[in-house]
């Protein structure tokens, strides 16, 4: 790492640390099962010891990812392959206990110190370097970082070998079909989902391995550790215009591993401004140092998605030996903002405030990016970008998984996604309910995990790891249950106040301190398909931490993991029979959640292709209505809702806005529409047109235009009127019940709502399909084809503009899926980001959709396909 160029002349006197480096050990690893090794770690970690018979290993990764790369197991995400992989509960722990080794070149000279960092090992390990055991006691805990000063142990010729033996969790849990299997996986501080859940089959090795980054860092005498940057933004702010100053508060740990005391200066720099302090660190000690507050004039403030921009400052913390030579430095991206909260006495739930403004929470529950822990910066960025594109502003990281990685938080900082971060507890495994699938009773499970001090120590370490991220908004004790009393007390009274002190702590995800439950039940849900009216008229929990519906993809999505022989659509059997659907075995294994009779109003599906298309209509309607219903009652019934769930880390057939392969389905675009910051919408209960304004500004001089179209494309203008709406408000404007009953009675009708500015440009558009008087979409089933025109041109590398045109006097071109495809293979390019999708084009209308993708060999020659309800599939090349 080279020092950042500083703006003040005084700083130019600092001498850069010439040999300072930080790099990752992520290639060239080898692995072998413990049973194939007959020597101790002190022997096999000698660089001269031959690793004969060892195989290439994936680090960061798990035993299973290594076996998969070496083709020892089939892809567990495809078909029934996971059933072919031996489960650790039956094989015993030794089967998945592995040695990992890595040869690397490094040495130290002069005052240099070399540090080995292991950011995550699951579950236990011993670490060896060049014949020396680095950890005096076996390391335990998936969520506890390890750091070793390896300077004394480096080989003089620079040729070193690192060897790590990794042991699985203990106990591993019986994957008996329960949530978390028999529950005993929760005796560990580890991912609970690996024993199986209702959205995933068991992960056979329980994520055993060096699952997170291994890095080498070089410093001089002093190592700067765990910087802590707090920003204070007093008052009520707006996203634009001049800003009163913000305050930046900085501290860090300074470690001196040498035999001599070291004097120097700790210096912090942000936006060309600095604050520093002289300090002397005694030999072989670590000391926490706090700097004087720094005032940042006219700061660029960070806002959640939909409320403002997300500027990030690159800041730097350095230790300068004798005030001159840089010993170590840490770079921290800072979003200047302050999180607050306030109890809403009307809703009986908490409001999230940021920079003095209340934020209506539109969130999604997140499990984990990949069930086998194959994390990449690019995948994190794509997934969080999808959440931004849904017009969401918060992600809750569910407690049966992990405290997410810094790279996840970097993406959330970039895209303006607040984060509610659970610690690793779940009511299912940790004893909230009577559960016959569990091995032990509730009283016993309530005491999980076995090692409470390890939990507390791990929690403190993870707080230090992610606390500087602007996106982190709420800490949560666990999913649907508090941790045991001593852990809860430590979190509330010690760990979080001392190591963070700036964020709201929720004891558990549906706690009364977040959302008072005066309705009974669990405080969250429901999770299945609902009548669209229910989202508007039935009051649920005032800050619902989990509420959701279905999410099956279309035929192309399904074909990625369902074998051809199993591409059989579910068939509805009738309400008087159990189960209500006949479902293929592979679909069942991938935990399909039923659409039951909800597709029948469109006509009973005949093929998988037909099923996939009709499922998208339900998907779109469900998630649009969900967020519209909640938004229509904001600050009256609700302060927020968090969808269960927006993604799957495995190829499950439920609750997802995009599939595991990053192919979006109609859920994403229905939610995108329903979550617009300024949005016009239709209340299906009283047939009223409603506006919602989630911004901080009054919106005036808007033309509200309401039109209906019949199945032949004939337009009926219902009204248009100039309207305005105040900040952070939902408001009913006009009823259209009589007109809608008349227009929809025979065949149903289409309803187009628009907000236009004074230049007649659309500010918000919302297109509904309304059933007939019997609740059937009879008109859709007999619609004529629409001759939709399609052109595509490249506007910049990785960017395509698609134009859809529907001639006048034609039917509506209804519900069209636009896809970027490889022209040679006709396969979709993934991920691709669409400005909108599943779009309908009115007669005489021209509509533009923009596409954004990463060019590469897999893209080949790009083309664009479109196919809709009454539009035949067509593919056109992208014009250069």
Offer a few descriptive terms:
880 residues; alpha+beta; 7-stranded antiparallel sheet; 7-stranded parallel sheet; 15 helices; globular
How would you sum up this structure, described in words?
The protein has 880 residues and is an alpha+beta fold. Helix content is 15%, strand content 32%. The protein is built from 15 helices and 46 strands. Strands 2, 3, 4, 6, 7, 8 and 10 form a 7-stranded antiparallel beta sheet that branches. A 7-stranded parallel beta sheet has the order 27-26-25-24-23-31-28, covered by helices on one side. Strands 1-11-5-9 form a 4-stranded antiparallel beta sheet, with no helix packed on it. Strand 45 (862-868) and strand 46 (871-877) form a beta hairpin. Helix 8 (452-466) packs parallel to helix 9 (485-499). The longest helix has 25 residues, at 608-632.
Q: What order do the helices and strands come in, and which of them pair?
A:
Blueprint: E1 21-24, E2 30-33, H1 41-44, E3 55-56, H2 63-69, H3 88-91, E4 98-105, E5 113-118, E6 124-129, E7 132-133, E8 139-140, E9 146-149, E10 159-167, E11 214-219, E12 223-232, E13 246-256, E14 262-270, E15 273-281, E16 285-290, E17 294-296, E18 313-321, E19 325-334, E20 339-344, E21 349-354, E22 357-359, E23 361-366, H4 377-389, E24 394-397, H5 406-415, E25 418-422, H6 427-430, H7 442-445, H8 452-466, E26 472-476, H9 485-499, E27 504-506, H10 534-537, E28 543-547, H11 555-558, E29 571-572, E30 581-582, H12 585-589, H13 608-632, E31 640-643, H14 666-674, E32 678-683, E33 688-693, E34 699-709, E35 715-725, E36 729-735, H15 737-744, E37 749-756, E38 762-770, E39 789-796, E40 799-805, E41 813-822, E42 833-834, E43 839-841, E44 846-852, E45 862-868, E46 871-877
Parallel strand pairs: 23-24, 23-31, 24-25, 25-26, 26-27, 28-31
Antiparallel strand pairs: 1-11, 2-3, 2-4, 4-10, 5-9, 5-11, 6-7, 6-8, 6-10, 12-13, 13-16, 13-17, 14-15, 14-18, 18-19, 20-21, 21-22, 29-30, 32-33, 33-36, 34-35, 34-37, 37-38, 39-40, 40-44, 41-43, 41-45, 42-44, 45-46
